[in-house]
Design brief:
The protein has 246 residues and is α+β, with helices and mostly antiparallel strands. It holds the Pfam family DUF4191.
Length: 246
C-alpha cells in the first residue's frame, strides 16, 4: 500500500514537473517572439505569408481532388509548422549576427550544436582573447580557432601537436572562424562540421575524450568568455583580466 502511494506521488510530481517545464518553454518562446518581432519588422508578414500560401495550396488541391475539408486541416497544420520553422531560423540568424566577431562566440556556437559532439572550450588561448576549442565527434578531432588568424594558427598548431600524441591515426581537422578566404563564418560553423566525413564511432569517441582529457587544457576564466562578449564590454578590461590569469 505504501509503495503504491509512493508511486502515485512520484507520478504526480513528474506530471507537475512536465507541466512546469512546458509552461516555461511557452513563456520562453513567447519572449523570444516578442524580442524578435521588435527587431525584425518582416517577421510577422513573412510568417503570415508562408502560412497563407501553404493553406491556399492545400485548398486548391482539395478543390481539384474533391476533398477540400480533408485538405484544409492539413494545410493549416503544415502552415503553422512552416511559420514556426521560419521564426526559428530568423531568430537564429539574428543571434548569430549579434555574436559575430565577439570573443567567445565560436565556443558558444559549438556548445549549442545539436548532435553527439563533445566540446571543450578554450583548451588553448592567450591574453588577446584568441582561443582554440576542441570538439570530438564522428569526424574525429576538430580544433576550432577564433581571434586573430595569425595568432590562432600558432595556437592551432600547438594544440594539434599535443592531440596527435594521444589520438593515433584519428583525423584532426583545423578550422578558423571568420569571414576571410579559407575561414568558416560563425553562422555556418555547425553546418560545416556536419559535412565532415564520419571516421569514428561512439565507442572510439569516448576513448578519445578520455585520452584528451588527460592532456588538460586552459580552463576559461573571467578573461576567456564562455559565450559572446556582451555588446559594450570593454576589451581592454577583458584583456587585462586574461593576462592576470595567463
Amino acid at each position: 500500500m505504501a509503495k503504491a502511494q509512493a508511486s502515485k506521488e512520484a507520478k504526480q510530481a513528474a506530471k507537475q514537473a512536465r507541466k512546469k517545464a512546458s509552461k516555461e518553454r511557452r513563456q520562453q518562446l513567447w519572449q523570444a517572439f516578442q524580442m524578435q518581432r521588435k527587431e525584425d519588422k518582416r517577421l510577422i508578414p513573412y510568417m503570415v505569408g508562408i502560412f497563407v500560401l501553404i493553406v491556399a495550396v492545400f485548398v486548391l488541391l482539395g478543390v481539384f481532388i474533391g476533398s477540400i475539408w480533408l485538405f484544409i486541416p492539413i494545410g493549416v497544420v503544415l502552415g503553422v509548422l512552416a511559420a514556426f520553422i521560419l521564426f526559428g531560423r530568423r531568430v537564429q540568424k539574428n543571434v548569430y549576427a549579434k555574436a559575430e566577431g565577439q570573443p567567445g562566440a565560436a565556443g558558444w556556437a559549438l556548445t549549442n550544436m545539436r548532435g553527439q559532439w563533445r566540446v571543450q572550450q578554450a583548451v588553448s588561448g592567450n591574453a588577446h582573447l584568441d582561443a582554440v576549442h576542441r570538439v570530438i565527434g564522428k569526424p574525429g578531432i576538430i580544433l576550432v580557432g577564433e581571434g586573430s588568424p595569425a595568432r590562432v594558427k600558432t595556437l592551432l598548431s600547438q594544440e594539434k601537436k599535443k592531440a596527435a600524441r594521444v589520438v593515433g591515426d584519428t583525423p584532426i581537422y583545423e578550422i578558423i572562424v571568420g569571414d576571410a578566404d579559407g575561414q568558416v563564418p560563425l553562422s555556418k560553423l555547425e553546418r560545416h562540421l556536419n559535412k565532415l566525413p564520419s571516421n569514428v564511432d561512439r565507442k572510439r569517441m569516448e576513448t578519445l575524450e578520455g585520452r584528451l582529457s588527460a592532456l588538460g587544457g586552459r580552463q576559461p576564466g573571467p578573461g576567456m568568455p564562455k559565450g559572446p562578449m556582451p555588446a559594450g564590454a570593454k576589451m581592454r578590461s577583458m584583456q587585462r583580466t586574461a593576462r592576470r590569469k595567463s
